[in-house]
Every structure is written in C-alpha cells, then in structure tokens.
Specification:
CATH topology: MetI-like fold
Order of helices and strands: HHHHHHHHHHH
Number of strands: 0
Largest sheet: none
Distance between the termini: 38 Å
Radius of gyration: 23 Å
CATH class: Mainly Alpha
Helix content: over 70%
CATH superfamily: MetI-like
CATH architecture: Orthogonal Bundle
Shape: flat
Number of domains: 1
Number of helices: 11
C-alpha cells in the first residue's frame, strides 16, 4: 500500500467517523432544543423559590414553583450516594425508602465502572507491591485504588446522574408531595416524579412547568457529567506532567 493510498484511506475513515458523530449528535440536539423551547417560558424566579402547594395561586389550580421538588431530588440522590444499605422500613413513604431504591439503581453502574477501571490498571503496579512483600490487600489499598481513583470517581458521578432521572422507583417509596419537606422520614417530592405528574395533567400551564422541570433536571444531569469529565482530566496521572 502506497503512502498516497494510506492518506486517502485515513481521510475516508475520518469522514465516516465525523458523519457518524453527526448522525448521533443531531437527534440529541433536536431533543434538547425541543425541551428548551417548550419549557424556557416557565422558568422564572418563583419556579426555583416557591412550592407547588403555595396558597397564592394553588386555589386557582395554577402551580407557582417546584422548589420542593428540586430540593427533594438533591436530598434523596445524596442519601442514595452516601449509603447503599438496607434500612429498617418506616412503614410509610419516606425519603429514606427512596434513597435505598435509588441505591439499588446506582450500585450495578458503580460496580461495573469500578471493575472496568481496576482491570485497566497496569499489572506492574501490583507486581511491584507484591515483590516488596506486601500482602495483596495492602497492594490494592495503597497502590491500585489511588491509581484508579479518577475512573472510580467518574463512575460514581455517572451513577449519581443516572439515578437523578429515575421516577418509577420513587413513586412507590418517597411518593412525593406539594410542600417543602426536609424530614427524610416522611414523603418527599423529586423532579422526576413531579415532571411525570405535570406531564399527565390536563392544563397547558402545568405542561409548561413540566418542560421547565425537564430543563432543570437535564442541567443537573449534564452538570454531573461535566464534573466527572473535569475531575477525570484534572486528577489523571498525566495532568500533572
């Protein structure tokens, strides 16, 4: 194969990759634009500061804001990220029950990402520690885990963002409500639950609120992904060189 044919083949493959990327990105941009166009009109200060059950306009059947849903989303997701354990049932809907449900959603993602990262860690790191006479657990804790911390952190943040968009498990655990609540032993509202409720409502203004909630939820998930990418690039071994 001549040098000219190699350049041609490389250009063709680059073109195919670029075309494939466009095919994948265009539908995502269209969906994102559709969500923004339909929900941007409902985004205002009261959307982030007032509750759906605020008496000001609740009697008219017109929602004011989803502050309680935003706070509930953050609280429940942080609880799910903080502990993935079995807790004693409260006997009623609660944020704790919702966090346990999301923990079961997050656990396979975290486990798979950690396994993939540990498999890509060079075996030479393990061999050095074993050659020095260190026990296997000490090698893993002192050498392997620090080398793989960037990938592990990325997997945790991706699982966190994945759980933030879940609504079905929360319908049977945290249930949701129309008022602000920080008591994790009681029912708590989240953005995915509220988005579902607004989407099936018969009022056009409620639909606009649902699109606005989708924008906030999408921004929250994208922030988690961008944070993962930033931490991966900032704390990777090659970033300090």
């Amino acid at each position: 194969m001549t040098l000219r044919s190699r350049y041609i083949r490389d250009a063709v493959m680059r073109g195919l990759l670029a075309f494939s990327a466009v095919i994948i990105v265009v539908p995502l941009v269209v969906i994102l634009g559709y969500v923004v166009v339909n929900g941007i009109g409902a985004l205002n200060w009261s959307f982030f500061t007032e509750e759906l059950g605020s008496p000001a306009r609740a009697m008219q059947g017109r929602p004011t804001g989803l502050a309680h849903s935003i706070v509930g989303t953050v609280v429940i997701d942080l609880m799910a990220l903080a502990f993935a354990l079995v807790v004693r049932p409260f006997g009623r809907f609660s944020a704790v029950a919702g966090s346990v449900a999301l923990a079961f959603v997050m656990f396979p993602i975290i486990a798979r990402s950690v396994e993939s990262v540990l498999r890509t860690t060079p075996w030479s790191l393990r061999e050095v520690g074993l050659a020095l006479g260190l026990p296997r657990w000490r090698v893993v804790v002192s050498t392997v885990l620090p080398a793989a911390k960037t990938g592990i952190l990325t997997g945790v943040l991706i699982a966190f963002a994945r759980a933030a968009g879940e609504a079905a498990p929360l319908l049977f655990t945290s249930f949701g409500q129309n008022y602000m609540n920080l008591d994790v032993g009681r029912a708590m509202d989240t953005l995915p639950q509220r988005l579902y409720s607004l989407a099936i409502s018969p009022y056009r203004e409620w639909h606009a609120m649902g699109w606005a909630a989708a924008i906030v939820l999408l921004a929250f998930v994208m922030t988690c992904f961008f944070a993962a990418r930033f931490l991966a690039s900032k704390f990777s071994p090659g970033a300090e060189s």
